[in-house]
Amino acid sequence: MHHAHTDAMTACIDDCLACYRECVSTAMNHCLAMGGAHAEKRHITLMMACAEICRTSAHFMLLGTPHHRHTCAECAEICEECARDCERLGGMDACVKACRRCAESCRSMAAS
Rounded to two decimals, what is the model's pTM? Predict the structure, then answer.
């Protein structure tokens, strides 16, 4: 059975899943180990929210539901916020990059 995902949607799914992996991995393996501001509840909660909305957006696109536009719009917003916070704290360039890439992809999907 062929899935009706466009190249842009497939790329967005990949970007969402990459961001999910990066946020969970960075929060659990970098931020908690660093302690201090990196391990503050607000920052860890933001990273986990980012990971979850990325996973959910990828899931909605894989399901083929038009509701992905809503999750992708929210995903873009949360990814941008997460990127700014990770950039502010420093030492999380891969997370910042993954979040910004996902935000850009999700903005495109939300507008389509």
Answer: 0.93
